[in-house]
Amino acid sequence: MNRVAIVTGGSRGIGRATALKLAQAGYAVVVNYATNEVAAREVVAAITGGGGTAVAVKGDVAREDDVLALFAAADRLGPLKALINNAGILDSQSRLDDMSLDRLRRLFDINILGSFLCAREAVKRMSVKHGGTGGVIVNQSSAAAVLGAPGLGVDYAASKGAMDVLTIGLSREVAAEGIRVNAVRPGIIDTEIHDSSGIKGRVQMMREHIPMKREGKAEEVADVILWLCSEQSSYVTGALVPVAGGRC
Length: 248
Ligand code: NAP
Fold this sequence. Notes:
Shape: globular
Low-confidence stretches: none
Strand content: 15-25%
Strand order of the largest sheet: 3-2-1-4-5-6-7
Radius of gyration: 17 Å
Distance between the termini: 40 Å
Number of helices: 8
Number of strands: 7
Mean pLDDT: 97
Bound molecules: NADP nicotinamide-adenine-dinucleotide phosphate
């Protein structure tokens, strides 16, 4: 029987790297994406070409119907053992006094509400209380949860702070039900998300502020997520793990 993992936003960036590594570790992977079908299909092809199992499922994590369809697709592959709550957005650089209600709603809907809906569906399937056999949830937080992102996006930072609280609270809620819940807090990782900030060359500009003097790679975050999914972290739950080159 397949061990199934869902990676929300698994088509690009950190999610893509995580989906590929989960497949190498033997998971059948559900690669969720919002709009970029070509990228999602490329990830699925890379996994199936290597002998693994993967499906691409389009869906906006902020929409409950889409989340239910995403989990139904996972159910068809086998028992869900891992959820990576990775999908997230960053909006353009802005102070709070310039943020519209639409911007705030969209960001919190995707970054937080979506993660809550996915975590709820995962617990329903994994918890021994509901007849499941346990599993792991890994949430994508950010170093921004600690740093606050002033002048750049305190909305984004606050959404990641909420991810931290979701991680701590839910980890304790389901710790005796076979589910471990942890988060990674990446720093500056070289992905396309930074283009959304509208700041050209943001990743390169940030290098001098990082103690290790370089940005991280998506694979370096994926490796930590894989560890949090593995038996090597069997006594770790409620952890918020910095993956930030010392900038945390
Ligand atoms: P990315 O390269 O921009 O990729 C984002 C992924 O999320 C894409 O697969 C995208 O799908 C998907 N997505 C966006 N909105 C979605 C929605 N509403 N529903 C479902 N999927 C959606 O981003 P990334 O840098 O890999 O970031 C991944 C996560 O890590 C985010 O939560 C981000 O906040 C967090 N993070 C990133 C950094 C960094 O420096 N990169 C640092 C800290 C935390 P489409 O391709 O279809 O749009």
